[in-house]
Design goal:
Number of strands: 31
Helix content: 10-25%
Radius of gyration: 20 Å
Shape: globular
Structural class: alpha/beta
Strand order of the largest sheet: 1-3-7-12-16-20-24-28
Number of domains: 1
Number of helices: 4
Strand content: 25-35%
Largest sheet: 8 strands, parallel
């Protein structure tokens, strides 16, 4: 009888763990929690639906219509900014769809939507099956993309990181863009793997710059890149 109870207990615990590991969370529910000022902390989950930190659909309702912006006529600023003020933490999660902190909607509404993070923004051990767009995003507190897997288009162009950020162990299946990115307190790309090109043109790093074990399959565009005031050269990678 005791053995039977033990086996049943084990099966119950195992079933609970399997159920937890397969937990599914709707992106729209996450956004609603953020809007309500709640801290978001999600572990071992699959996120379905576009996770739009810019709130584009909601913001469009209150914006005047604009004509499509032409290259010869700036027409003033067309950027709509949104600030995520609560902590967001995703650990060992899979994003089935796009994660958007940047949406260029200039061909339709005439606006570009950008989101920044006022508090911690953690995406650790996560898989991004869709796009991961963080162009122009500002990360004012702790942030991490450690051991993340980026399987589709991604960009951190013009992004700004005020605190140390880790991309260690990350894998980028497509070209990775960090052009004009600013790392104000160090960055780690330790053991990061770039399966295509790496664009760090005009990137500026202050503080620790860890690229030990980093691999880039094809080209590194490091024109005008500055690492603590010095130029980045390919031999830095080969010597790590």
């Amino acid at each position: 009888m005791k053995n039977k109870i033990t086996i049943l207990s084990f099966l119950f615990v195992f079933a609970s763990l399997v159920s937890y590991s397969q937990k599914t969370v709707k992106a729209e529910d996450i956004i609603e929690d953020i809007k309500a000022g709640k801290t978001v902390s999600i572990t071992n989950a699959t996120i379905v639906g576009d996770l739009d930190f810019t709130y584009m659909d909601e913001q469009l309702k209150d914006l005047p219509k604009r004509k499509r912006r032409r290259w010869w006529n700036n027409g003033g600023s067309n950027t709509v900014k949104n600030l995520i003020e609560t902590k967001v933490s995703f650990v060992n999660c899979t994003f089935k769809d796009d994660v958007l902190a940047y949406i260029p909607d200039s061909d339709y509404s005439g606006y570009t939507f950008v989101a920044s993070f006022d508090d911690d923004a953690i995406f650790k051990d996560c898989v991004f099956e869709g796009k991961a767009m963080f162009k122009y995003s500002k990360f004012e507190r702790d942030s991490s993309f450690e051991n993340a897997k980026f399987q589709d288009d991604t960009t951190f162009k013009y992004a700004e990181f005020d605190n140390y950020v880790s991309f260690s162990g990350t894998n980028f299946e497509e070209t990775a863009t960090f052009k004009y990115t600013k790392f104000r307190n160090g960055v780690s790309f330790k053991n990061a793997n770039f399966e295509e090109d790496l664009n760090i043109k005009y990137t500026n790093v202050r503080g620790k710059f860890d690229i030990s074990g980093m691999k880039v399959a094809y080209d590194i565009n490091s024109k005008y890149t500055k690492i603590n005031g010095k130029s980045f050269t390919r031999h830095l990678l080969n010597n790590n």
